[in-house]
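Try it yourself: sequence plus zinc ion, in.
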Amino acid sequence: MLVVLKLKASPVASAKVFFGAMVGSIGYKPIGHNPGKVMIKLKFLTPLYLMCLVLALSCKKDPSHGVAFEGGQVFNGQTFESKTFYVINGLISFNPPGTLDSTIQLDRHYVIPPFGDAHTHNLADPSKIDSLEKKYVQDGIYYVQVLTNYASKADSVRDRFSSPETIDVKYANGGLTSTLGHPHLAYETSALNLHWSAMFSQRDRIKQSRLAENDAYWFLDTTEDVAQKWDAILTIKPDLIKIYLINTERHEALVEAEQMGNFGLSEDVARLVVKKAHEAGLKVYAHVENAYDFRVGLNIGVDGFGHLPGYSWDGKADVDMYRLTDEDIAKAKDRNIVIIPTANFAQVYAVKYDNRGNPSLDSLRYETVNQFLTKELKRLNKAGVSIALGADQDGETSILEANYLVDKLEAFDRLTALKLLAETTPQTIYPDRKIGELKEGYEASFLVLSGNPLNNWDYIDSINLYVKQGKFLNIKQ
Ligand SMILES: [Zn+2]
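Structure, out:
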């Protein structure tokens, strides 16, 4: 058996404690800076050897020195190949360095690029940050995109991320909507410390509340509002912009009727936001509900969609409201637009509650919506549209969504799903970096799995080693 860092009964468990003690209260970080010429065979790993491994990886920034990883099965984008690779100055090479500081035997274990999460609201709340950061690392997710969060809270935690030794996180900050549009209701309900059911029972109180305004959301009703508030939106340094397009075809009527939460921006306002965001060098992701919203997004030039239309379908309303046309899909492909399906909502929304709050699954809705989403996802994939993964569920990661797509929907084969999770998603979050593939000159960031995920998908959860930009990441117990 190789290094199974998760196995408590193995000798490695004591190694983990040992490291935990060394790194103090920080969740994980690389240790040491004193490379020696050591040969490490992982299957005989002891705390001492693990220490050597860490030292070996954190070698000096000298391009003539490097560390060899021998005997692993390395993912090449299609399959796994037996080959040796080197970590030199934080980058991957398939050519040996002038001086080999050490060699790590991977004993036929499986090496893949780390994962991304393109739609979450995690990692912005200081009160949960330690456990969630740990979860992201444990899940092998190094690249995260937060699509709406309290800017003020993100401000207090963002310094701990986005360095070679940590996961990398982008924040959209406050979502852009119109007065009383989504996500005002959701944020104000929680800001008032109310249960979600208060959205119905205490509607007026929530309607008046503005505790999270200009922080977790902004109200932009007219193009004049955009002109007036834009500088303030940029002042809190969003890494990207999130807009809300919901039932856009009925926008004015819904605003008039004060249908709180059932609308977002008007098309005119959204168009100006996209223009100004692009001028500021920021990408724009749109929350959409139906195919009309999607078309508005295409017309105004958004860069990505936070949902696939139909993710929230009740399984009864006219399905044509949600189905994309071939032309929609061709446009999305031509313009290189990213779609984050959040298909797992089909299950979340199919759960009904009785008067006592006991849940049960509406299996007709569940099956109907799953079938629809599976078809749509296959069409998008066949057309070559970029699909990035994110679960958009509190406390969960994109692994939940990946498992849903593979196990429940069977929308993709395991190779496609692995590429979406490890290649497309990281590359869409950080398009300017050499990540998502194990190629010459790419960042030396990878996960070592105990088995082949193309044979058994469960192996994406059997991560033995975490390396980021040439450094070993340790996970605190
Ligand atoms: Zn979301």
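One thing you can check immediately is this: Residues 119, 121, 147, 306, 392 surround zinc ion (CB under 6 Å).
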